[in-house]
Predict the structure.
Amino acid sequence: MIYRVKEPFFFTIFGASGDLAKLKIFPALYSLAEQKRLPKDYFIVGFARTPKERKEFQKEFYDSVKNKIGKDLNKKILRDLVEHVYYFTGKYDQCESYKELKDFLLKLSGGKMHTHIAYFSVPPTVFKPIIKNLGECRRQKTDDIRLVIEKPFGDDSCSAEELYHFISNYFSEDQVYLLDHFLGKAGVQSILHLRQTNRILNLLLKGYEIANIQITAFEDIGIKDRVGYFEEVGIIKDMIQSHLLQILAFTTMSIPLTTKAESLHREKYSILSAINVPKKPENIVLGQYKEYKKEEGVPANSKTDTFAAIKLYIDQEEWFKVPIYLRTGKKLSAKKTNVIVEFKKFPFQNQEEEPNLLKIELSPEENIIIQLVNKYRSGASQYETIATSKSIACSGDYCLPEHGLLLLDVIRKNKCSFLSFREILASWRVTEDILNLISKHKIKVNKYDDGSGGPSLQNKLVQNDGFNWHK
């Protein structure tokens, strides 16, 4: 059963002139239109400070989708979608603009007030004025306004908590959708779905049976035009703080007993709040690709990390002393994201044998692989690795890109693929523990070759525990 939206809605994109809107949000709306998931009446409104005619914005919208979709574009569907696209010029920090926006929306709908989805495609510096003015200038408190706010949520636990309290002055938590686009990826969602529907898999993913877990997210590109942002945050805040810690939580949490978002958030929080960052500096390896300082805008003395490998533990009985290794980096040999679970061996087993593994590949392809070891009494080799794999990629005509799926979930009020503020605060505290350890011990940023596998020191991180990185 494919879910189709029946009720009309307003969809306002704050920061409609930015790259996020053009590269992700516009194509996501097209994917919903292509699959006939949108209702007869809906209104997409670009809100930005730059004065612009509706036709000019419609052309920007059309061209952005055309460039993203390419040869598979259905021009008729896109032309029909563009007929629902409007533009509004306003100031983020002026209440008058929001009163005018409200009148503008009512005029479009013939005086009817529909669900209003407000997407924050803007820098975090303007979150607060938009939240404040949306809250103060609405017609009444019962208006159905849903805020979609994409990470980063603050730049530390204090600012994230402050943002939470600020939003709470104007909106209830069930009106706020905190978006990490990683959670819209089919592979990431499959981790939970596979565990919920396959008891045998869930029995394997118990800490008592696991030797270690390795979570890797590598990119083969550099920072491109994100110099200003990346110099400020570095790889740990950019990738580990939300993306990798969320994957860790999905992999290790207890299975929620209900399908409600609150139940899922509670189990993820139980893991995130129990993460322990070992205090020894050898548990963190940092790197920077050699050409980083040649990127336009990067200071000559920059020590910003573009690679990080970190060992963590979960302070729960089941996960006692099970090391979890996270590593991520830019400008590496290949683009890949995966989770590899290495299972314990029998005490009497030959420790030189290959271990049993569960591999969940999230990109570039989405697969689940189970690796076993067989032993022969005769033959050239005494041991043989047996692997079985299956794609977990969404297939068929009704698959959606990550932002498309997440937008659909906002419309149908499904918060399972979004974050809770408790999770965000717990993740920030883990991140701060890591950053404080780096600062206290002045952990060196190691250079590594562009297109390599990262700094060689990362091997010592796992070898100290008797393990190796799995390819």
Observations:
- The chain has a mean pLDDT of 93.
- The chain has two domains: 9-150, 183-398+422-463.
- The CA atoms of residues 52 and 89 lie 7 Å apart.
- The first strand starts at residue 9 and ends at 14.
